[in-house]
Structures are given as C-alpha cells and as structure tokens.
Amino acid sequence: MITFRNPRLLAEFDDWPIGRNDRGRCVFKVESKESSARKIGQAGRNLWRVSRTTTNRLGAWCKPKCSTWSGQAAIVDGSDGRTYVLQIAQGYGFVKVMRHDFMDAEGGSVFAEVVNQAGQRVDNPRHPELVRLIFQAYDKDYCASLGIALDRKPEGGA
C-alpha cells in the first residue's frame, strides 16, 4: 500500500517527462473558486481543483490540464517516488486518490466506511489519515474556521 507525505498546494518540477525522451518544467497548483450558489446569496461552498501545466520541448507553457471542481485537495508525494493528488469528493465525503495525470490511482477512492468479509460496515482507518493529510496543506486559521484541529507534522504521513 502506498503511503503519502509532504502535502502542499503548489509543486514545481524542473525535470518532468513531457513525451518521447524530452523533459521540461511542470507546475501543479490547487485552485479555488466560490460556488455559483454563493455568488447569488444562497448557502454554498467553495470548490477546489488541481491544475497541471507543463512546458513543451521548446520551453513554451502548454494549456493547463485540470481535475474537476470538488472538495479540498492537496498535492502529495507517494512512497513509490511519484506525485499524487488527494481530493475530498464534495457532497460525498470520500477521498479520491489520483495520479499525476488525474486518472485514478490504484485503490482510487477511500471511503469512510467499508464492508468487511462478514458483510458488516466498519470504519476505514485510512480515510481520516488522508483527510488529515489534505488539511495539513492548508493554513492553520482556515482549518480552525472549519473546526478542524490538526496535530501538524513537518512531512505529514499517511
């Protein structure tokens, strides 16, 4: 099972594979926006997504590739040496685990409850760890405003 560490909202790489044998720059960034419901005065939530922008072989920036708008997200490093995106599914609560290309990673969704072999619903111990890791990337005041108390570790670890 892959473990994650180093949650952040911005990640830059100078030696990213861009196709063939070429390498270039790559920037991952968590973006946020106000939902349309909040704009017209109704109760609504902010939305987040992750964008990935690379350079082409000539060094010019390409059009960004983005995940879908949903809950809070963070860019993390996997124990296998790869970059992953963790995002809370807005309205559903499970944590989506995506590879650097925004496709589902192995074990792509981590639900709060799972069904064991006996058919009983049990808490998934990995879910709170991943949620805590996502929020470690955010400002301490932001987490406090949501009522989330974090015991922060410099490198994270889930």
Describe this structure in words.
By secondary structure, this protein is mainly beta. The chain has one domain. The protein is built from three helices and eleven strands, in the order E-E-E-H-E-E-E-E-E-E-E-E-H-H. The protein has a five-stranded antiparallel beta sheet, covered by helices on one side. A four-stranded antiparallel beta sheet has the order 2-3-4-5. Strand 8 (95-99) and strand 9 (104-110) form a beta hairpin. The chain is globular. The relative contact order is 0.18. The model has no long low-confidence stretch (mean pLDDT 83).
Topology:
Layout: E1 4-8, E2 10-19, E3 22-34, H1 36-39, E4 46-54, E5 65-66, E6 73-78, E7 83-88, E8 95-99, E9 104-110, E10 113-115, E11 121-123, H2 126-136, H3 140-145
Antiparallel strand pairs: 1-6, 2-3, 3-4, 4-5, 6-7, 7-8, 8-9, 10-11
Give the count of structural domains: 1
The rounded Rg comes to: 17 Å
General form: globular
Structural class: mainly beta
β-strand percent reads: 35-45%
Distance from first to last alpha carbon: 10 Å
State mean pLDDT (0 to 100 scale): 83
Largest sheet: 5 strands, antiparallel
Number of E strands:
11
Spatial sequence of strands, sheet with the most strands = 1-6-7-8-9
Low-confidence spans: none
Please report the number of helical segments. 3
Strand-and-helix sequence, N→C? EEEHEEEEEEEEHH
Helix content: 10-25%
